[in-house]
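Quick illustration for those who missed Monday's session on complexes.
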Amino acid sequence: MAARGLGLLTSLPLRAQRSQVQRPLRRLLSCPGTVVAPLGKEEQSSGSAETGSEDRTPKKRFSEVQKERREQAQRTVLIHCPNKISEKKFLKYLSQHGPVNSHFFYESFGLYAVVEFSQKESVASLQNVTRTPSLGTEAAIPFRSRYFNLKLKPPLNQTSEQSSIQCRNQSSSSKKLFELLCCAESVDDQLNTLLREFQLTEENSKLRYLTCSLIEDVAAAYFPGCTVRPFGSSVNSFGKLGCDLDMFLDLDEIENFSTHKASGNFLMEFQVKNVPSERIATQKILSVIGECLDHFGPGCVGVQKILNARCPLVRFSHQASGFQCDLTTNNRIALKSSELLYIYGALDSRVRALVFSIRCWARAHSLTSSIPGAWITNFSLTVMVIFFLQRRSPPILPTLDYLKTLADAEDKCIIEGHNCTFVRDFNRIKPSGNTETLELLLKEFFEYFGNFAFNKNSINIRQGREQNKPESSPLHIQNPFETSLNISKNVSQSQLQKFIDLARESAWILHQEDRDRLSPSNNQPWGLAALLLPSVANSTSLAKKKKKPASERIKNLLESIKSSSTENSTATNR
Ligand code: GTP
Ligand code: MG
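Prediction with magnesium ion bound:
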């Protein structure tokens, strides 16, 4: 069924590519504006797997989304296309292998297409007509993948049709964001705008699941029947465009599979091969997968094996998708944490908007970093926002213990001896009666943590109240499932202090704006935009107010906060 004039090459890791991890590529791909073609009709009408609509607040169960997306990814291929291509001919060619459900193009140092077939068999049919490139100077290692290179023979002449794939250039995203924020009607509108602009798009989510599925193909060479599952911000509904892709190699289902069938006298050799500890087993598995990705993984570059970390991992850049990937193994608890966060994000539309803003605020002030270190992580920040929302009156989010009481037999989940049970159907959780605005919540978040007794209290979303710190780390946030662990153990006193100082200053700016509301100064960033400026301390409005010494400013701030808190609590109690 090979079409004349079109040749698809199975993509191989080229030696020349390996040394360069192209950072800008990640940025480009991550931007919504780099998607260059309209979606297929079916896709437009069916909406996204998570939400069923353009509003990306989760509406389906986490497990349902995972299953749907995974199955969709298995019917999907990634194609590196020539820059000039006729979309119509391209689709016509592909549909010789079976109906195409949806497709989109994106640009990432070249033009790529993500094509979802209706049936899995179409992928095999397409693979059967691909060939392995012969480079003359280098030897090719054939690897059957779903990542192809499209070579046109002869190259198509430019026709009017080809202009149908237009690249919508992405303007500088932070500049655009500032413009949007400054044009917003209210602080609430600003928070929702930020969420809309930075949340993962439908295409970006699809590409994340596809990338995991492509990595699974490589890992399956060693462990047939394994699954590579995404977790973390790619799936917990708090992912910002450009965030890393956390994935883990799940070998549990292979074991389940063999337990069902293990009626005979034979045990597979790999299962009886003993190593001194679980950790060493993990390191060995990740070591071979790392080697495999490095040598044979199409599009995988800059592979690093970080096996001595607390949680051993393989880090690499998936060049075609532009994602920075972290592959771990046996990470079911992290997947469960992702599901819990997903549920919290689904319960109230204010949650995701607030988390996004706090994450962006922290990034803008270098409180978080993509490099591991003594900084606070996005995961910790998200847990802090959840805790804060549990502390409102009435609470906006329920405690984890309460979610556990709503669980039924099917929700029961014990992982490595840890009770990870909670209700998974969020329709069974009663919505909160709290009607506070995002503006108020943002201000109160900064106030709350600007004055939190970090020296003696621990943050605990299981019980939804502060507890005495069980150890002396500057910041103690209880791990929701492995309750004896602190998820922010890495945070130093100076980083915590920086967080507190910035939280206080941000609360102060918002309070000052409240007071100045009758005489707003035009052309000045306001509300969330003012808080996101690279340095709050350098902002013009603050510089004016900074004439007083710091201690006096903080004293004034605390006083103004105290008086307005009394006003607010009186107002909410009315
Ligand atoms: P970004 O990648 O920064 O956007 O956020 P993320 O939520 O994906 O965080 P990260 O990549 O650092 O970690 C991925 C996931 O691993 C998190 O969402 C958590 O589920 C889990 N995780 C991260 N840090 C910890 C930790 O200290 N303890 C535990 N138990 N899980 C963690
Ligand atoms: Mg992550």
